[in-house]
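Moderator note: this is an archived Q&A kept for reference. The question asked for a predicted structure of one protein chain; the sequence and the answer are reproduced below.
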Amino acid sequence: MPEPTERDLSDLRRLRRKAGSRPELIRWLDQCQEVKCGRPPLDLIKDFSVHEGPEKDIYVAHYKLGKETYVVIVRSRKQRMGKVVTLTPHKVFHMVAETYHKAYGHSRDALAQMLAKKFSRKLAELKKAL
């Protein structure tokens, strides 16, 4: 733990004089909320749900992003079907984020990661329930 500087000690003495007593200063300190580090979490994505789709490993994700409601069809993993290649959930949500990230104040990658993480959590819950 670092030693207090002369200025720190001066500030403490000034606050103690203002509080009137040491116990009162400690009471003041106990009432202070600690400063939280980092960006506050935003509850940007609401009502996220995942349902099974018409075929195996295809899922339908419903969610609200801001005031808009979205429906995305996602395959649980990358797969080649003849000449068509389906994308991973992260790629699908990255495409969604390409379009909408500026409206919500996040980078494309951050928004795509938030959506993909919510998808994987809800998919795990869905598979556990089955």
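Archived answer notes: The chain has two domains: 1-32, 45-129.
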